[in-house]
Amino acid sequence: MAPSSENALIVQSDCSILLEVRTPRAEEARVAIAPFAELVKSPEHVHTYRLTPLSIWNARAAGLPAEKMVAALLEHARYSVPPSVEQEIIELAARYGRVVITLSDGLLRCTCADEATAELLRRDRTAGRYLTDRVDRTSFRVDLGQRGVLKQALVVAGFPAEDLAGYVTGDRLEIALREHTASGTSFEIREYQRQAAESFHAAGSERGGSGVIVLPCGAGKTIVGLAVMELVGQRTLVLTTSVTSVKQWRRELLDKTTVRPDDIAEYTGEQKNAGPVTLTTYQILTWRADREDEFRHLGLFRAHSWGLIIYDEVHLLPAPVFRATADLQARRRLGLTATLVREDGREGDVFALIGPKRFDVPWRDLERQAWIATATCVEERVPMSTERRMEYALADRRSQFRIAAENPAKMARLYRLLDQHSDGRVLIVGEYIAQVEAIAEEIGAPLVTGKTPQAEREQIYDRFRRNELRCIVLSKVGNFAIDLPDADVLIQVSGMFGSRQEEAQRLGRILRPKGDGRVVHFFTLISRDTREEEFAHHRKLFLVEQGYSYQVVTADGG
User: Fold this and answer.
1) In the chain, % of residues over pLDDT 90
2) CB 407 within 8 Å of CB 527
């Protein structure tokens, strides 16, 4: 399609892309570029995307050809697409798989597409450390133990390897998905869940790769994990974010698969067992007595013949687990996440060590198909009192954020929202313990924090599921792995600075589809004319990228 004034995109020579929100084809253009472009900022009228090596390589790994990326820009561009941008996409896309890692006679072989690439990488400051044993003009022998660190180095050098070195075979696991749940209700895996599992398994069996599945919270990522376990059929280690998540995985395994209870083991602070399916947490694996002590529980990775390792919420993977994963490249690795965004900037390490993106579905597509709930997102800007504004003005920058976050005036607005949604099932989430403690006491709702004993947490969650509780107040433990499908209102009273991943996770707490099709509501309370506005703007980037729009209102209704 020729450039047109009705088109939404302005493609610039620095590989940035401007999307004008009010144009007729804006939503169509957003959907077209989202698989290969990263959203940078999203003010009211013009959103800015950028093309990056990782965004292009992940799109290639998910099966999107460079020609389709270029075609998407040409179709939706208002003006001519700079030839340099087309060339950049083609060249970056061509780098994916230009280096291949294979296994031969017990040694890794790193083969480059041509002699020039081989020479460039041999001279690279980082990758060159592992490419010292030259076989011929384009190939190098590499020690088996260097598979992970070599892949990391190749990503940094700009030539991500296609890893075809294969896997060891783990102990056999007898597992199948049920046609009926343990309680007798009919169970059928959704089509996109099946496609996600098969995309991962095909990548593993035919091309030798592991990888990441990206699905919205509430879309059933755990079910995808169960389907992959059935396809692989080997001893499995599942890493999760919390003991609550461990319990959730156990419930789903017993409810929807044929795995026997005795075959599921938990390796947590409560008990340290291992079995054909072992559930553990990132926290226990990275525990150590002091800073000088070793990470003694990381030995779990090597203690058993795992055929599959599942990293739940892979965007939260801690550094020590990255280092351990570098040594586990002969095991199949599945990452599950709602967002590839990491606040520490280590998306490249996820790509290299867990694997590239194998499958994703836009959130709004699943919303239109009623697989996740329809959501409205509202940002409410609350004024501060004259005294608190002066306290804010005199504070240092870090203290300013907390002063704004704990603004007492938010309490009045919270009460009004609770009145407006008196029939709702409400979760109230905040960053600061003192704030959520005060709210829980004020409204008479139970509070769950990191210090709440696991048994007490489960009791509170069960009461909510049975409709005995209308509202729960949560610290940031509420970001992850809380299975409360009836929750339909979430009120965020404070957040972690500008964390996009946290915003996505919190919205995900209420996105489970409701049987009656009701709309869910996500409210963010921020203090007006403070740094909270700046951070809130950054936090919602990911959700805007998924097609959600935020309504911004002030306390007086403006």
Assistant:
1) 60
2) yes
